[in-house]
Amino acid sequence: MSQAQESGSITVGFAGEAPYSFEEGGELTGATVALHREIFGALGVEELEGVNTDFGSLIPGLTAGRFDAVSAGMSILPERCEQASFSNPEFMYTTALMVAEGNPYELRTLDDVAANPDVQLVTMTGAIESSYADSLGIDNNEVAGPQDGMDAVVNGRADVFALTGISLNWMADGNPDAPVEVTESYVQEIDGVPQVGAGGTVFRTEDEQLLAAYNEELEKIVSDEERYLEIMGDFGFTAAERPDGSVTTEQLCAGELAEGETPEAAPAGTEDSEG
């Protein structure tokens, strides 16, 4: 932490997934980037530098020291928590499907995809939707980034691309002439269990001081809906995505919610240093 403060700069890994973190006109931008500028700025670190990396290589790049944190809207999952430390939840996420205009296969969820062997699915390498597909027994092709998934649907190489609703709606809105549409966002169920989840920033496990300082500033933002939306709202985030404390990083890292515990059953309140 002191090293970042002394240099006034911190480096983050990102995967070019809008609206979380991406480059536009040569500048690093996005919802998580805006959040990071606010938080790291409050910690005395004014300069944020980005390293573009394939999503599946973000945590390996972090642990190898290529960057100081991961800014990618990354889902907090037990297997990831074994490799690195996550911040408190920064947003809640849901899944959606990008399909050809008119939704010819009438797909609404990945269960619909699993029920139709003629449907070709693509997911993003390392994304939670890829895990959902595996759990549902769906053969799917993986792509490196969101644009690749959209291109696969547009070019007919795939019938459906599964990703977070926030990301797919952002892409569709930014490409109004593309012959695609996005289904209504939903919470995927696996073996009857709703896959409630959240995303956060990732740090190396040894950077405990940096994580604690980050979480302290993050709490000031997520606890204030108006401030949260001032930072995240321009990127399509709404009050529905703001964490309310019912789901914690500790629970997500332990896999408790995946074992059937719902957010309503989870204890309220966020923790000071999770991950």
From TrEMBL:
Chain intervals for the UniProt region annotation (Disordered): 255-275
Xref: SMART domains: PBPb (SM00062)
Top-level taxon: Bacteria
Solute-binding protein family 3/N-terminal domain residues: 9-232
Composition bias, Low complexity: 263-275
Pfam assignment, any one: SBP_bac_3
Transmembrane segments: none
Keyword set, alphabetical order: Signal
InterPro entries: Solute-binding_3/MltF_N
Protein's name in the database: ABC transporter substrate-binding protein
Source species: Kocuria turfanensis
Lineage, uppermost ranks: Bacteria, Bacillati, Actinomycetota, Actinomycetes, Micrococcales
